[in-house]
Input
Amino acid sequence: MVVRSGRWDGGAWAVAAALIGTVAAGGCAAPRDDAEPGGDPVGSVRGAAEALTRAGSSKASTAMEMASGGTRVTIRGEGTYDFRRRTGSLQVVLPKDAAGESEHRPITELLAPGALYMKNRGAGVPADKWVRVDTTTLDDGNLVTGGATDPAAAAELLRGARSASYVGELDLAGVKVRHYRGIADIAEAARLASPQVRGALAAAAKGFTTDTVPFDAYLDREGRLRKVRHQFSFSNQGRTVAVASTTLLYGFGARVSVTLPERADIYAGKIQA
Output
């Protein structure tokens, strides 16, 4: 995917830049022609989001691998997510700086329909304040900006699977899963997405000039998404940035407690890049 030139020069990119700087990762593997025994690969992948809604909630681990030029970093997150309320929380850990000297405080991220809240954002934001970002106005719909793809958006993106092939069965952390590889269409995913996620994906569909997203998805026997890896790429100020975003889901039924900040606790000043 390539973001339209210039679309990332404003406040949305200022938030993203503090998290991902000048980094990204990529590679687009073509789907195989293997047929899933007794099943429909595209249908299985498209049904993953609904299976998660039935499951209710889970723990989540995220990794966003980015590289630009000779720099490669990974941003990691841990937390929980409620797939019915579309709310969750993550502790996002930033890597050390290029010299390997600076330790960054973890960023607390609260995920809610249409919004991303971040604490310990840094870059001039008071330590006791939150930053709120309207994800329906982000060119990427928060697929990249927060340094972690919203777990619901990661799953709902699969509703737009244009093609998929069954790769095979494997063991993932002690669970038998089926591996699928394919291509998703953001605009189609936005059209089919649940109402809470539709606005963010619709924004992403408008913000990216190419709608297709290569993915690898791993589903358990109940059809629940256990792991998904999306590969994004875009252009920012003439520089190509590629991002590989991986989301792991486990511990289904986990307790999720999310309290959104009061208006007085949200920072209203200018965010530095």
